[in-house]
Structures are given as C-alpha cells and as structure tokens.
Automatic annotation (TrEMBL):
This is Anti-sigma factor antagonist. Gene3D superfamilies: STAS domain. Signal peptide: none annotated. Pfam families: STAS (PF01740). It comes from Leptospira langatensis. Residues 15-112 form the STAS domain. It comes from the Bacteria. InterPro entries: MlaB_ABC_Transporter (IPR052746), STAS_dom (IPR002645), STAS_dom_sf (IPR036513). CDD domains: STAS_anti-anti-sigma_factors.
Length: 115
C-alpha cells in the first residue's frame, strides 16, 4: 500500500505550501486531516499535487472540505502541478473548475503575492 506523505513549507508570511505525495484515499484521509485540514492556515494555502499518484472520491472530498473551510475564513486554497490522472478524476466528478489551479507552484505563489 502506498502511503501519503505531506511536506509543509512556508513561502512567505501569508503563504503555506503543502507538497502532497502518494495516495489520498480512505486509508490516508486521517493523515491528511491531521496534517492539513485541522491546522491553522495562512491566508493562502497551496497544495502542490505533483507527486500525488492517486486521489479517491474521499480524497477529493477532503480537499473540497479544506477549500470550504478556508473560504469561510476569507482565505484561499490554490492547487498546483496536478498530474493528468489526478485532473481526470477531478474532472470526472465535475470538481476541477471550482478550484484555483496553476501549472507551476511558482505561478500559484505569484498569484498569492499579487493579492
């Protein structure tokens, strides 16, 4: 079984970047919840999905829950560097368009700095 790894980085005083790698599914959701969903967030949270190999509907629900929580607090969630398979799963569920997404992490950070 592939696990979920989460690396947290600061990209400025109001930008937190999480590099998500492995699988985000039913079995790894608790780890995502503990490391990302339940912690205090900066004004801008970037999820770098470049090393995410698989995301299930439970994983997408977790990301959507994060987006909603941040929106309620007046904060932003940006997705970056998602692979084709991950994007296909989001699109299959009709859930890619509601997210702000960027091809490169640097572009997402630049967008955060503009606001």
């Amino acid at each position: 079984m592939d696990s979920l790894k989460i690396l947290e980085q600061e990209a400025g005083s109001e930008i937190k970047v999480y590099l998500i790698s492995g699988r985000l599914d039913e079995s790894t959701f608790p780890h995502f919840k503990e490391k990302v969903l339940e912690v205090a967030h900066a004004s801008n949270t970037v999820l770098n999905l470049s090393d995410l190999k698989y995301v299930s509907s439970s994983g997408i629900r977790a990301i959507f829950e994060l987006k909603n929580r941040l929106s309620q607090e007046g904060k932003k969630l940006l997705l970056t560097e998602a692979g084709e398979k991950v994007i296909q799963i989001f699109n299959l569920l009709g859930l890619w368009k509601p997210f702000s997404h960027f091809e490169k992490e640097e572009d997402a950070i630049a967008a955060c700095l503009k606001n």
